[in-house]
Amino acid sequence: MLKVGLTGSIACGKSFVGNLFKVYGVRIVDSDVIAREIVLPGSKALQEVKEKFGAEFILEDGNLNRPKMREVVFADKNKLNLLNSIMHPAIRQRTDELCDLCAHGLPFPESYLNIIKEQAQAKHLATCKTTPAANTSNNSVNHSCETKIQLDLNHGSEKVIDESKTQLGIQALNEPLDPSYVLKEDEIPPYILIDIPLLFENKLESFVDRILVVDASRETQLERLLHRDGCSKETAQNIIDKQLSREYKLQHADDVIKTDTLNIEEKRAHVLKLHISYLKNAQKLHKIANS
After folding, report:
1. Which end of the chain has fewer CB atoms at under 10 Å, N or C?
2. What would you report as the CA-atom Rg of the chain, rounded to the nearest whole angstrom?
3. Residue 67, class by beta-carbon neighbours within 10 Å (0-12 exposed, 13-18 middle, 19+ buried)?
């Protein structure tokens, strides 16, 4: 089975691109979801965190105290290395397990799927707000999600920050450009996407067969971070500066999607083109493996 590594720097629009592949039935193994799953209450990794960091890093409900852990590891590089020594092997093992499930056409476990649902709900609550509609005869109230748009004062136009909330974006995430390329749910997937934000940083290039980098300019990253996270400009700049350079990722990519130079329709066309290409590559790989 062909493995495609999906990566990119923060706020480059990787999630939107990944969801465009999902429209074609492509399965995605998400490293961020795995990182949460492996420290669920009662897990081996969480027990190791407790032994090496202390019981104070575990909440009363048995979950990891994430704010406390972030505060400690960001201030102490040795603590960060210690945490990584626990997390990275566990993430790699779980990634292998989920890829194996995909290779046999089996569903993801409930523990993994539940985290995806929780993240979707959290994102919905973070990006939506209740807005009263105009007065009506029955005094009803409409609840709607506000499209993320930022005014571009330099050009006197509106710049979309979150395309998934626009009408075209919603359509793109629900309707494939070519339904004939949608994978059947009951078939073993020819290829999978493995979403690995730190693919290059953790030297996982050999873990995948191809690398798809989602790219955006520094200016776009900054705009998205400021709007999405509500952090200061200085904090956003520091986050971007600490990541591996954009140039390095582009130089080592097999495929690239530039999210700030393509409109939604162009992104859909690019994803379809890559999807067809990956299907052909997977077919070749299958023939080689069985020859």
Report:
1. C
2. 21
3. exposed
